[in-house]
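Blinded run. Sample ID left blank on purpose so nobody reads anything into the name before looking at the predicted structure. Input follows.
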Amino acid sequence: MPQALERADGGWAWVVLLAAVVTQGLTLGFPTCIGVFFTELQHDFQASNSETSWFPSVQIAVLHAGPLCSVLVERFGCRVTAMLGGVLASLGMVAGSFSRTLSQLYLTAGFITGLGMCFSFQSNITVMGLYFIRRRALANALASVGVSLGITLWPLLSLYLLEDLGWRGAFLVFGGVLLHCCVCGAILRPVATNRALETREVPLPPPKTPALSCLAVCGRTIQRHLAFDILRHNVRYCVFTLGVTWMIVGFPLPHVFLVPYAMWHGVDEERAALLISIIGLSNIFLRPLAGLVASQRAFASHRKYLFCLAALLNGLTNLVCTVSADFRVLVGYCLVYSVSMSGIGALMFQVLMDLVPMDRFPSALGLFATMEGIAVLISPPLAGFLLDTTNNFSYIFYMSSFFLISAALFMAGSFYFLQKKEQQGRQAVPEWGHTLEGQDGPKKQLINFIFMNGCHSSSSTCPAGKNKHPWGCPVAPLWPNLVLQRLWAGVET
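Blinded prediction complete.
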């Protein structure tokens, strides 16, 4: 007997939200504790800073391996994919505790554990967008509180286990803890709006057409799960993806290097680990506040600018560590850093949901996460190489600030420029705006939709051009071509 589908914005949505909180704490919050083991791993394997940095780099990069996760979500659903992720994350950490070389550690606790975390985390993110519609911004912010809990608890647990069991024993215990991702995955019942994931996809060829070649099948799979069509046609998504990719090169560096930086300047190990926990503890309260602000109707159209502001403040805050390494200064740095970090964490996925339709969100998230993964893969090793070359931690924080500030300015400037072009397009056809005002509401909404999103369909009469969109132009039959050309010229010029 088929299982009844859950209802969006229903009572079970809040249980799914709780599962998302725990999952994000177990997955996204976990890499922050690697800094506690950094010195111990470096000493045990007799490795350089750059070589040791590859371990958290591989783990975080694979954590963002979106396309494979989106394939599994489409084939098996979010529930099975999340539970599979919990098993893989656990096996990777258990196997990592027996590693004898850094290469083995990269493969086990790095690649396998990161892949499992990817399956669990991204399945939860996808199902959250389907379960919550009216309160989506608030739900995403509340779910990101799990990251704050993870950042708070993982370093303290890591320090305790490191002192009693060593890093190998700690990794073995972590394997058991990560199995809780399976429990969270079991909670993800199918929701009725899951059907939307199957709509508006590129239609399969008719049964009588010849079988597609292997290359064509691969191309179609990439199109479905990496959303290159959105990247080409949705300028805002392109700007956001490129900006966040550039930003991520600098964003994770304080999480990895803050503890070694404090210890290098004479702060004892316990107080150094406490710095990461201060960031996490502050985020527990700040992320819901950021979510409440973002969910207000007055800020709905400005979320992308709030995200840029948070990234800018995050980059400026990192400059504090280049001035002083006193423990009291570092505590103040952590508190201020938490404000901007909470804004980034609460708004990132909500802005992405604002920029793409939910039926394309899994594939858009796949490409977005892949770009993030590439940035994360090169970020810590690049910083480690910089540290080996200069033997000065300050350059790492300069590097982090540069990438964050430049990315924030790029995204904010691009969004503002696109908004100005749209306003000029509206002014180019004032008589139509006046005609549609008032009684003709649906047509006016259609015009606004074209201005805000562009035409997402294909037809020889589409003002975007023949064969540009795959689903057939929904507006060309409704309006004279001359009007459409004027409207499109207002958007494109």
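Unblinding after everyone has recorded impressions. The chain has a mean pLDDT of 77.
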